[in-house]
């Protein structure tokens, strides 16, 4: 047992971190108090810490790059799992990322809340078949990128996956005429 110098409570030795510079080989504060001190210090000095970090990254760009690459190589499986978990937790962000990546060369960028706005605007229905969008819907360029459309909010609609696959890169008027809606 050992008494924490910060909170004053007597605690088991496992409640203290190791510190080889101390006589007993343990820190003066328990782990809980140590984490509180770190959080307080970060809250107080976060701007200064972030500024120093940014300055270091700028002046040591090559060292940072090689360090990051080494970390990526050593932690491939861990990063793959974290990425998969993030993708499962953020399906809307993944949709927008995929869409933006494909369309980046044509300029423009989609709003982060585009899916929610379109879903409400379209009342949760596909404009092609007027059925419920459900969970399996695609972001579709009204005027396809292949035909000169831009990757901007005003050129995006939500379509059911099947409708989007049938539409492909056709002009919206041509597609709707093929379905018998427009003359």
Observed structural traits:
alpha+beta, two-stranded antiparallel ribbon, 2 domains, 183 residues, DNA Binding (I), subunit A, 6 strands
Characterization of this structure:
- A hairpin with a 6-residue loop joins strand 1 and strand 2 (10-11).
- The model has no long low-confidence stretch (mean pLDDT 88).
- The chain has two domains: 2-56, no CATH class; 88-178, Orthogonal Bundle (DNA Binding (I), subunit A), CATH 1.10.30.
- The chain is elongated.
- With 183 residues, it is of the alpha+beta class.
- The protein has helices at residues 31-59, 61-74, 76-89, 91-103, 114-121, 161-167, 172-178; strands at 2-3, 10-11, 16-18, 26-30, 137-141, 156-160.
- The chain contains seven helices and six strands, in the order ββββαααααββαα.
- The longest helix has 29 residues, at 31-59.
Classify the beta-strand content into a percent band: 5-15%
Distance between the termini: 86 Å
Sheet with the most strands, sense and barrel status: 2 strands, antiparallel
Write down the secondary-structure element order: EEEEHHHHHEEHH
Count of distinct strands = 6
CATH class of the largest domain: Mainly Alpha
* Total count of domains: 2
Low-confidence stretches: none
Apparent shape: elongated
Q: Compute the average pLDDT.
A: 88
Number of helices: 7
Helix content: 40-55%
Structural class computed from helices and strand pairing: alpha+beta
Arrangement of strands in the largest sheet:
1-2
């Amino acid at each position: 047992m050992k008494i924490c110098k910060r909170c004053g409570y007597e605690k088991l030795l496992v409640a203290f971190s190791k510190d080889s510079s101390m006589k007993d080989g343990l820190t003066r504060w328990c782990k809980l108090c140590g984490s509180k001190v770190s959080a307080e210090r970060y809250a107080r000095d976060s701007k200064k810490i972030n500024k120093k970090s940014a300055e270091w990254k700028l002046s040591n760009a090559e060292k940072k790059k090689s360090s990051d690459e080494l970390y990526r190589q050593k932690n491939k499986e861990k990063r793959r799992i974290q990425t998969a978990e993030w993708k499962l937790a953020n399906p809307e962000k993944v949709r927008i990322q995929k869409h933006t990546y494909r369309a980046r060369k044509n300029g423009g960028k989609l709003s982060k809340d585009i899916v929610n706005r379109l879903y409400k605007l379209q009342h949760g229905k596909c404009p092609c078949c007027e059925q419920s969008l459900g969970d399996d819907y695609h972001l579709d360029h009204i005027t396809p990128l292949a035909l000169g459309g831009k990757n901007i909010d005003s050129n995006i609609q939500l379509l059911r996956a099947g409708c989007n696959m049938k539409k492909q890169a056709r002009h919206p008027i041509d597609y709707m005429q093929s379905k018998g809606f427009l003359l």
